[in-house]
Structures are given as structure tokens and as C-alpha cells.
Automatic annotation (TrEMBL):
Domain of life: Bacteria
Protein name per its UniProtKB record: FAD-linked oxidase
Domain FAD-binding PCMH-type: 29-208
Alphabetized UniProt keyword annotations: FAD, Flavoprotein
Molecular functions (GO terms): catalytic activity; FAD binding
Leader sequence residues: none
SUPFAM superfamilies: FAD-binding/transporter-associated domain-like (SSF56176), FAD-linked oxidases, C-terminal domain (SSF55103)
InterPro entries attached to this UniProt entry: FAD-bd_PCMH, FAD-bd_PCMH-like_sf, FAD-bd_PCMH_sub2, FAD-linked_Oxase-like_C, Oxid_FAD_bind_N
One Pfam match: FAD_binding_4
Lineage: Bacteria, Bacillati, Actinomycetota, Actinomycetes, Micromonosporales
Length: 426
């Protein structure tokens, strides 16, 4: 039997005939073609696949629902696509402990639906439709609720992953001072699967709020957004999320002489008991002023990205006090009012550039924006882009402690077997 035939037989033994195959044309990672696809049924099966990859010197890229597989850098190799879709379900829910262990291949929406039957939820509301728990962690993807509850890493009480040598490893528990030990979970968050194959996560679980309300008002300019949000954050009205949407629009020199409402929107989510939410939403509407209104449903853009699959998607992270400067920098560099949307409270926002722009033009925009953000403790990364642009521009920009990043990769994956080239180029 040839080496290729022996490898296929081993994959079938681990996964079953229906779940091991040669990769097709659609089995790519940011444009890199895979050779094999394997979907193991158990955690032990994941470990066996990785050990098999070690034996045959194959690079492994984990795949959940593939909603963000084209994000980030193209891997230098993608020999084996390890599909985690069969690692699904809420495996253990301990309401008294406030946590649940969830399989990495579980769609976030499915996990939320299962927990909702008992009156609970995860404080995760990521925009990617169909995203899995493992994919959300690997991409460090957050939604509006991050304003109140923190990032994905903040939600992790523990994580189980298979190392680059095929060893199942558990991380979590409590530190010496009694606080959750999230060290490895924080490293795995945003690692694009380059440090370990996540197989399950123990995530914080919260009671579902009895009532929700959104307070909305129109916004004309980034500077007005800054003024309104500054007053909001200084108030004592506790918000679950503070999001804004500034769509692409023609600049208005004398705003209120042209239209009754600004082109942008600021929306604030309030959660809690019905009476409490009513009282706080009324106070919030008074605080926001202008045309503020209370609604029982979110705006149509809530929890959605401002970019499409063929656009250049940027993620900007900056202190909220400098958010307006970042938005002006993007628009000035692009020479247009490009759409910008995200969290005004956390300062994590996304912007969209045309996918048909010349790579040199995109590179110039990135250089200008990063120059403005450099002195403001901010960053601008390219989340996704058409292949010609992705391969031509610096996706990350300045990386804090690049030597540390390389040492982390070498510590977890010295052979460079897991998603090589995906972790800040390491």
C-alpha cells in the first residue's frame, strides 16, 4: 500500500468512511488549497489525527463552520483540514457554578438555544452567522455585549485543546487568589488555531435578562459621536452595549440645515428587570437628547459587520476617547466617508474599503491610519481582503513584542505544524 493509501486508511479508521476524504476545490484556507479533510467524532479522534499528521509531516488547520477561514494571513501549508463539526453540543452545564462546557464545533446559536431552554445564555453575540464556539475563540470575535461582559477570553473559565504533538491538554481552574486562571485561554483567543486545536470550552453562563430596550439617536459626525459617548460613559446609567453605525454618505457641511436626522446612528442596549430597564432607558433617552427614542428591537445593522465578502475589512482598536480621531484618519486616508461600525464603548470598530481598490492604494491607507493610531495606543489590522490585496499589504501593522509572539509559537508548536503562517505571520 502506498503512503497516500495508508494515510487514507488511517483517516478512515479514525473518522469513518463518510468523514475522511481528499480535499476538493472549495477546501481552502485564505486561498491555500488543502489536501485532506478529516472530521473526527471525538476528542480522542482529534488527538489521533494530529499524531497522524506528525507521523506524515502534514500541516494541520482546524475548521469549524468556515465563517472566518478566509480571515487573516494565508497559511504557508494547509495539508490537513481538521473539521471540528462533530464535536458539538453542550456537554455539561452547572448552573450553580455559572459555567457550561461546550464542544468546539457547536454553532454559537445552537448553544444559545440549548441554554435558553433553562433560562440562561452566553454573553457572546458575535456577528458571524453560523460561527462555532471554537471559531469564535480562535478569531477572538466579539459582539456588542463585549461592552459589559468583556472579550471572548474574559468569558472562558477553561479550555481543552490538542497540542501540536497530539496531546489532549486542559487549562482553567482558579489562580492562587481565587480568580479564574485564563492564561492559556487568552493565548488561544485570536491565535487562528496556530497554538492548539480547540476541542471544547468552559464558558461563563448568565441568566437571560427579563427585559431589553434600545435607545437610539442620530449622529452627524465622528466628533459629535465622541461628545455624546463621553457624556454617556460618564453617567451612572449602566449599559449592556454601546454601538454606532456611520455609513458611507456624502459629507454635509451644515448638517441640520440639510436634513432632520444625521446619517449615522448611536444605539445603547439596556438589560434587566422590566421596571428597571424602563427607568434606565428613559434616563438614557434624556441623556442622549436630540431625537433619542426608545425601541424594543435593535436597529437593522446591530450585530452585523459593515463589510461584505469581497471588501477589504479593517478592524481598528483604539481607546474610546480617540475613536473619532481614528474614524477621521480612515476617511481622510481613503478620501471618502467609508462605512464604519462597532463599539463606541470598547473602541473596537470595523471599516470597509472597496475590494477593487489597487493594493498600493490600500497599503497607503493602512500606513496613514496606523501612523495616526501609533501615538494613541491603537492598531489597525486587515481582517479579510481579496487575494491580490491580502498578499500585497502588511495585514498586521506594528506588533507589540514580536519576539514574544515568535517565542509563544515556538513554545506551543516548535515544528510549525498548526496553521503555519496564520499567527501574526509566525
Amino acid at each position: 500500500m502506498t503512503t497516500r493509501g495508508a494515510l487514507f486508511r488511517s483517516l478512515v479508521d479514525i473518522c469513518g468512511m463518510r468523514f475522511a476524504r481528499l480535499a476538493g476545490r472549495a477546501d481552502t484556507v485564505a486561498g491555500a488549497q488543502a489536501s485532506w479533510v478529516a472530521a473526527p467524532p471525538t476528542i480522542d479522534g482529534v488527538a489521533a489525527i494530529v499524531r497522524l499528521a506528525v507521523e506524515h509531516d502534514l500541516a494541520v488547520v482546524a475548521r469549524g463552520a468556515a465563517t472566518k477561514l478566509d480571515w487573516g494571513a494565508r497559511p504557508t501549508r494547509a495539508d490537513m483540514l481538521l473539521d471540528t463539526g462533530r464535536l458539538a453540543g453542550v456537554w455539561h452545564h452547572a448552573p450553580t457554578e455559572g459555567v457550561a462546557e461546550i464542544g468546539a464545533g457547536t454553532p454559537l446559536r445552537a448553544a444559545q438555544a440549548a441554554l435558553a431552554r433553562g433560562g440562561y445564555r452566553l454573553a457572546l453575540d458575535t456577528p458571524s452567522v453560523g460561527a462555532t464556539i471554537g471559531g469564535v475563540i480562535a478569531a477572538d470575535e466579539a459582539g456588542p455585549l463585549a461592552h459589559r461582559h468583556g472579550s471572548v477570553a474574559d468569558q472562558l473559565a477553561g479550555v481543552s485543546y490538542v497540542s501540536a504533538t497530539g496531546i489532549l491538554t486542559h487549562s482553567g481552574g482558579r489562580a492562587a487568589d481565587g480568580t479564574p486562571d485564563r492564561g492559556v485561554g487568552r493565548l488561544l483567543s485570536g491565535s487562528a488555531g496556530a497554538l492548539g486545536v480547540i476541542v471544547s470550552a468552559t464558558v461563563r453562563v448568565l441568566p437571560q435578562p427579563a427585559s431589553r430596550a434600545w435607545v437610539r439617536r442620530s449622529i452627524w459626525t465622528p466628533l459629535e459621536l465622541y461628545d455624546v459617548v463621553r457624556g454617556l460613559l460618564r453617567s451612572r446609567v449602566q449599559a449592556a452595549a454601546v454601538e454606532f453605525d456611520l455609513p458611507a454618505s456624502r459629507p454635509v457641511l451644515v448638517p441640520r440645515q440639510r436634513a432632520p436626522r444625521g446619517p449615522g446612528t448611536l444605539a445603547v442596549l439596556l438589560e434587566g428587570e422590566p421596571g428597571e430597564v424602563l427607568e434606565r432607558s428613559t434616563r438614557m433617552a434624556d441623556l442622549l437628547g436630540e431625537d433619542a427614542a426608545i425601541r424594543s428591537e435593535p436597529p437593522a445593522w446591530w450585530g452585523r459587520y459593515p463589510f461584505g465578502p469581497d471588501d477589504v475589512a479593517l478592524r481598528v482598536t483604539v481607546p474610546s476617547a480617540d475613536l473619532h480621531a481614528a474614524i477621521y484618519a480612515i476617511r481622510d486616508a481613503a478620501g471618502a466617508t467609508v462605512p464604519v461600525r462597532g463599539s463606541a464603548g470598547t473602541g473596537v470598530v470595523h471599516a470597509s474599503l472597496p475590494g477593487n481598490a489597487h493594493p498600493d492604494r490600500v497599503a497607503a491607507v493602512l500606513e496613514a491610519v496606523r501612523g495616526v493610531l501609533l501615538g494613541r495606543a491603537g492598531s489597525c489590522v486587515v481582517v479579510s481582503a481579496p487575494p491580490a490585496i491580502r498578499d500585497a499589504v502588511d495585514l498586521w501593522g506594528p506588533v507589540a513584542s514580536p519576539d514574544l509572539v515568535r517565542r509563544v509559537k515556538e513554545r506551543f508548536d516548535p515544528a510549525g505544524r498548526l496553521a503555519p503562517g496564520r499567527f501574526y505571520g509566525a
